[in-house]
Design brief:
Length: about 240
């Protein structure tokens, strides 16, 4: 069954633009993923289609109201057909740290709904009633949930078999294993006095594989000591991913 992803947002143009101009469009054209962009304002009431209001108890900022979100999520559940459980994702600074492992697990799910928050966030009752997973992309805050949602969706979709022209490429990306990715080169062989390492031109695949592993280890050790410690531990135990 085709994977289905609904994205709820008050600014659908942002989501639609990225879908049309990224790997997500390729996934849709291949009929591997079907996207539904749900305009939150379609489920608001009143002349101004209000979707936000001041928080109870006072304080600065505005909160996305529960009624439009309840209706939008219920609509999204209706259009995502099939017996599979629907995961509802919400990018949030209070969520679990987003990772390659989370993206890979979610790439196996057939039905996903992603809520794009705005302002100070969403009414807590939406989280309690519908949200099944909250994720943080890091210790920073952005003005709207569209960019975090798109980053998560892109990370998920590219791991679905058939989306990338060469799925093997995704298996060697940074964070796909315990090591960061290493340096890559393409034509020309020389530019501004900088040349491609001779080993990559040798045709000796075993030597090339060894060089690439050494470069990945070197880069991980220098740039991510936390990952390097994990790698050494796994290597010592024989539990490295193949």
């Amino acid at each position: 069954m085709i994977s289905q992803i609904a994205i709820i947002t008050p600014t659908p143009e942002v989501i639609e633009t990225v879908i049309r101009n990224s790997i997500l469009r390729q996934a849709e054209e291949k009929k591997i993923v079907a996207f539904q962009v749900v305009n939150l304002r379609d489920y608001a009431t009143g002349n101004y289609r209000q979707i936000d209001d001041a928080p109870f108890g006072g304080g600065s900022g505005m909160i996305l109201m529960p009624e439009p979100l309840f209706k939008a999520i219920e609509y999204a559940k209706e259009v995502l057909v099939g017996p599979e459980k629907c995961e509802v994702l919400y990018p949030s600074p209070q969520g679990k740290l987003w990772s390659h492992e989370e993206a890979y697990e979610l790439s196996t799910k057939k039905k996903l709904i992603v809520i794009c928050g705005h302002y100070k966030g969403i009414d807590q009752r939406v989280r309690e009633q519908y949200v099944t997973r909250e994720y943080s992309l890091g210790d920073f805050v952005v003005s709207g949930g569209e960019l975090p949602a798109l980053l998560m969706v892109d990370g998920i979709v590219r791991l679905i078999p058939g989306v990338l022209n060469t799925y093997e490429s995704a298996l060697t990306d940074s964070f796909a294993t315990e090591l960061l990715d290493g340096p890559h080169y393409t034509r020309p062989r020389e530019i501004d006095g900088m040349v491609v390492p001779e080993v990559l031109l040798s045709g000796h695949h075993q030597q090339i594989d060894q060089w690439r592993l050494q470069q990945r280890e070197k880069r991980t050790k220098e740039r991510r000591p936390d990952l390097w410690k994990k790698y050494l531990k796994l290597r010592a135990s024989g539990d490295l991913l193949k």
